[in-house]
Design goal:
The protein is of the alpha+beta class. Helices cover 25% and strands 31% of the residues. It starts with 11 loop residues before the first strand and ends in a 13-residue tail after the last strand.
């Protein structure tokens, strides 16, 4: 990229049948044998420019073992992915770093699990508490969990947070809006799920519900397509529709908002989709990312990147025997602010 005051130089090349402009910063990633899961996540992380900006501000002064430091290696990968080169990014150092942190090479992984593990490593391995908290605040959904004893009507509540919302899906047609509503609906805890009631002095059946305290700048939604049975795991290929934009408060009921609810905005736009292709025991991950520069959608399949339209993103809804299905959705909260600095109260 040319600096200010210089004429902008455009370097272009072909990937498949689509011309990719290198000023857009979209580069593919080499697949080092089953690294497609990490590759898809890296594309979504890089499309989250707020995260890239935070790591860019980080000056790692006290990193002793660089080969084991995930945030440092991620920072280097971001630099390579944004550089003006036509070849796919070689990121073996980052993969080895993950391997050194027990995210093994040449092993199939679950994208949501790896997503949460990487965020956990960022939190534990950065030596700047302010920037580390900024990354946490970027994804943090604050919740109030309310437990209502069904024996004595005693009510207790506590505050917690999630970095991705696990959304249960049905084995037929689903919509994202219905999945979010289902997550917030109270459920009865019985048998092994009973909770300790302070008033009864023992574990009892209880009704558990969630109330929203605050929503994050980046809302990660995990569509739980894998269903475990006694001796095998099944992938649900059913259709799950999702919008390009939505207002969270238009979906949920008022009673699902905590009295502590913080109004930071509730309108969201889709910025990345992690896609799983295949079945539970064998599959492949790709990603759709919405680029900040030209406001277009791109499809990243390891080393191949091509420009697509919204209708192509919609092809990951699933259903009708399709094995290409959206697995994780990342939405960016609409805001007038052009930069996220991690200072807002969540």
């Amino acid at each position: 990229m040319a600096g200010s005051g210089q004429s902008r130089y455009y370097r272009s090349y072909y990937l498949g049948s689509h011309l990719i402009n290198r000023t857009q910063g979209i580069r593919g990633l080499v697949n080092y044998g089953l690294s497609c899961c990490v590759n898809a996540l890296l594309q979504s992380f890089c499309a989250t420019w707020e995260l890239v900006d935070i790591l860019d501000k980080w000056n790692p002064l006290h990193v002793e073992n660089k080969n084991r430091n995930v945030p440092l290696q991620l920072k280097e990968v971001f630099k390579a992915m944004q550089s003006d080169h036509s070849q796919p990014v070689s990121h073996h150092d980052f993969l080895n770093c993950l391997d050194n942190n027990c995210i093994r090479l040449y092993v199939q992984h679950d994208a949501d699990e790896v997503f949460l593990l990487i965020l956990n490593f960022l939190q534990r391995q950065m030596d700047d508490d302010t920037l580390m908290q900024a990354i946490l605040s970027l994804y943090k959904v604050s919740l109030e969990t309310v437990l209502h004893c069904r024996d004595c009507t005693y009510i207790q509540s506590y505050t917690s947070f999630l970095l991705s919302l696990p959304l249960h899906i049905k084995e037929d047609h689903n919509s994202l809006e219905d999945c979010i509503k289902s997550f917030l609906e109270p459920e009865v805890l019985r048998d092994t799920e009973k909770c300790y009631c302070e008033q009864c002095g023992m574990k009892t059946c209880a009704t558990r519900g969630f109330k929203i305290i605050s929503l994050p700048p980046i809302l990660c939604l995990h569509l739980k397509r894998f269903r475990s049975y006694h001796d095998y795991t099944k992938k649900l290929q059913c259709k799950v529709t999702f919008p390009e934009t939505f207002d969270f408060l238009e979906i949920v009921k008022e009673e699902t908002l905590s009295q502590k609810y913080v109004t930071n905005g509730s309108k969201y736009s889709l910025c990345a989709v992690i896609v799983h292709i295949g079945i539970a025991m064998f599959g492949h991950y790709t990603a759709y990312v919405h680029h900040k520069g030209d406001q277009s959608w791109y499809y990243a399949n390891d080393s191949s990147v091509r420009k697509v339209g919204w209708s192509d993103v919609q092809s990951s809804y699933g259903g009708d025997g399709r094995e290409k299905t959206a697995y994780m959705l990342l939405y960016r909260r609409d805001t007038q602010e052009q930069q996220f600095d991690g200072t807002e109260t969540l």
